[in-house]
Structure formats: C-alpha cells, structure tokens
Amino acid sequence: MKVFFLILVFASLASASLTLENPLNLWLYHSETTGVLLSGEFPDRHTVALEPGSRSMWLWHLIQDRSAVPAIGNGIFGWRAAAAGQVGENSSEFISSGGAAFEVFAQPLSWLTISQRTSLWTGSDGNPPSGFSPFHYGLEHGRHLYVDWGFIQAETGPLQAAMGRIPVRWGPGRFTQLMISGQAPAMDIIKIDLKLGDKVNFTGFTGTINSDSSTWLSAHRLDIEPFEKLRIGLSESILYTADGIDLAYANVFIPWYPVQWNERVDDNAFICIDATWQPLHGIALYGEFLIDDIQYDNIHDVPDKLGYTFGTDLFSPEYGVGAVVEYTAIQRYVYSQRKINNFYMHDSRIIGSQLGPDADRITGSLSYIGFQGITAQLKGSYTRHGEGNVYEGWPDSVQAGGSFPSGIVENATELSLNIGWYPEDWLEIRGQSGISFTENTDNQTDVESDDSWFSLELILHTGD
To answer: Tens digits of per-residue pLDDT, 278-326?
Structure first.
C-alpha cells in the first residue's frame, strides 16, 4: 500500500505553532510514531506519514491550519482572535467561565517577525476556560488581563534569535516534562536556535524569573539525531539570584556546572538527558532523566535529588487509534534549594513538572478519531504523593534513606473523558467529564475524598 507524507511546518516559537495547552498537541505527539521525530524543544517542524484515505487526514490539515501564522493580509500585518465560554459542575458546584484572546503578527522584513498575544478572562471559581494557558493565575483577585507572549524574532540561514516573553517546553513527556514543562508562565528571555547541519540543533536562552528579587534563569540544550529513528537531548539549566545578570551564565555556549561548582555558591543547577526512539512504525519509546543533585562524593549521607520519566506511544493513523502509557517519579527535595529565592519556580509554579517532588504517577490514555471532525481521549492516572513539597527547601540536616514517597502517602486515582468536535474551521466544541478518589487526603491518615466534574466549552476562532 502506498504511503505519502503530509508536511507540517512549524517554527519553534508560539506564534507559528499550537499553543502549549491545546489538546491537539496530543495528536502531534502521536505523529512521532509514524513520521519524523519531534525536536526536544516542542513543537518543531516534522512530517507525518499517512495512508491514502486515512480517517485521520482531516486532523492533520486542522493541526496545520491551527499552527500557521495569522494570515498577512497586506504582506506586513495579520491577526487572529479566539473567544471561549465554558459551563460545568465541579464537586456539585456550578461553574462558568469565559474569555477572549487576541494575537497580532507582523513581518516588516522578510527575516524579521513580531508576535504578541493578550488575553482576558473571568471565571466563577477563579479559573479560566480550559483552552486558555494553564499559567493564567493573577496575583490579586480580579486581575485577569494577561500578556501571554510577545517577542521579536529574526532568522537568517541556520540561526534564529528572539527576544521577549516566550513560552518554552522541553522534553518528550506526553503528560509532564521534568526540566521545563511549559506549565509556568512564559519567560522574559533572550533566545537563540542554531541548526548545525541536519542532525544537530542547539537552543539556548537566558532571562529573568522575578525582577523584584533579581532571580534569573539560563538554559541550553543540544538535540542530536545519530540515527534516523533516534533523537537524544542534552540539557542544562541554572536558576540563580544576583544583583544583575551573571555574564558567565548568560554565555549559553559554555557548560555551567563547572562554573557553579568551582566559582559560585548555592545556585540551583540541573542537568537533563532525554531521548525518543522509534523502533517500529507506529511505536515511539521515550524517556527523560533529571539530575538536580547527585552525591558522587557523599561523606554526610545526603540523598540524591533525581527525577525520571519513561513511556511508550502507540498510534495507527489508518484506524485513528492511539495509546500512551507513561510513568514519572520525582524524588524528595527536587526543585528545592537552600535559598528560598532559588526554588525552581516562576510566579509560584514549578518550572519543571507540576507533579512536584516526593511523588510518582502512572498515566494511561486511549485516543480515537471516531468520525469526521471528532476526537476523543480516555485517560486514567494513579498518583502517590509523600509529605515532601518544593517549599520545604533543602535542610542541612537531611539524610538519605527512608521510604519513597515519604511519610503518610496521599493516593489519588483519576479517570477522565475528553471529546473534541471541530465542525467548522472557526468552531470547536469540547466536552470533559471525570471522577477522582483520594486516600489520605493532604497526607492525613484515613481521610478520604472524592470528586466529579463535567464541562462543555465553546471556542470561536477568527483571523485575517
């Protein structure tokens, strides 16, 4: 049977890709099993292999349309807008929310682009509609006008440089990523991408996390494809507090661990290795290993601080069926640090996995393209969370050993069903429902709780 390739082209920045919270990203991940592997900096350009007449054909056209930059009506300026309304019930309480987002895109020169998105929302429970970015949480009640992103980008040959507020996500995890998950607010950074031939790509950025406390973050990664079906990512990040930007950490072309170890004190450094391998058509295996701290010269019996994820993604474009199984474990004290300002957080949200430290989780999902314009996902998870959290810091008295997760362990089981209907290019309808059951709630012995929810969301798109 003949196979052809539908080419989906993505820039590495948000203006020309699906927003990180868009549920269509699940299908973009599924495409790794039958096409070219995604870059470790998600999303990036790739191809999808489809059979002629595949029932999933319309979906890839939809993703391509949603990922394209706004149309440049006069060759210089374009715009795109979306409005969403959501109603539902959570814990027997009626909830409602609504919002709108407006994006502008300009290309004054062939090599120069500018993108900016602003959103406004309101919600009866203080939360936005589900289609909005997950980091939309104001510091004070009622403040729900946000600049989601805004940056200027220049590209020449293999080099791409950008400056501004930019969403970032690194790693292959389908349900969480360990170093940079994209679940924290978009960061104000200076960023470069450099393609070193067809097999190597370099990404680096440095920027501010909290200008009021002079907290900074620098990160860089190298994506290597030694073989056609294997991608390996090597990443490093460092969060530090200083009166001004540290030029050593702003230099994205040198390794920072020796700098931190020999020349600095108490900066929060991370090293990460991730990989994706497609052993057979329709199967992708992936993993991520995070080193926050490893005690290679341990004379005080101090524990390591490690995290890891591994999973498998199965997908059949011909039948429109996909499945994922993923396990993540994050040891206690990961993301924490001796200095409160150096906790690996941005506006009270962990920059890495929202699962947090002292926890593990196994997640499974079954995805289906049922009829023209309809997608569905059934997802279940089981989570264990110990008594540790990111706010406990890194005490000098901490000792290795003990159970994982630690202390009284909260156990949570959750099952959810998500359905998307795309009857028109300008219209989306999403339905969600779920149930959860928790034992030892908030790490209190024999305290149980359960929850159920459902919601219906309507999203309108327009642009020029």
So the answer is: 999 999 999 999 999 877 766 667 788 999 999 999 998 888 899 999 9
C-alpha distance across the termini of the chain, in Å:
39
> Do β-strands 230-241 and 359-369 pair in parallel, antiparallel, or remain unpaired?
unpaired
The number of beta carbons lying within 10 Å of the beta carbon of residue 392 is 14
List the chain domain ranges: 4-463
Are 341 and 215 in contact, with CB atoms under 8 Å apart?
A: yes
The helix/strand/coil state of 248 is helix
Nearest-angstrom CA–CA distance, 273 and 390: 22
Distances (CA, A) of 388 to 35, 113, 385, 409: 40, 44, 8, 10
**Dihedrals φ, ψ of 59, to 5°?**
-65, -40
Q: Which of 34, 32, 51 is nearest to 43 (CA)?
A: 32
Contact 335, 356 (CB under 8 A): yes
Contacts of 211 by beta carbon, 8 Å cutoff, 6+ apart: none
At 44, give phi and psi (nearest 5°).
-145, 175
Strands 159-166 and 268-280: unpaired
Q: Which helix (H) or strand (E) holds 57?
A: helix 57-67
Which residues on adjacent β-strands are paired with residue 313?
Answer: 284, 324
Regarding pTM above 0.90, the answer is yes
Structure confidence by residue, pLDDT tens digits, 343-400:
999 988 999 999 999 999 999 999 999 778 899 999 999 999 999 999 998 887 787 7
Q: How far is CA 399 from CA 208, 307, 332, 339, 454, in A?
A: 33, 18, 11, 19, 44
For 56-66, give one letter per residue: b (16+ CB within 10 A) or e: bbebbebbeeb
DSSP 8-state class, residue 164: E
Asked if the 4-463 domain carries CATH number 3.40.190.10, the reply is: no
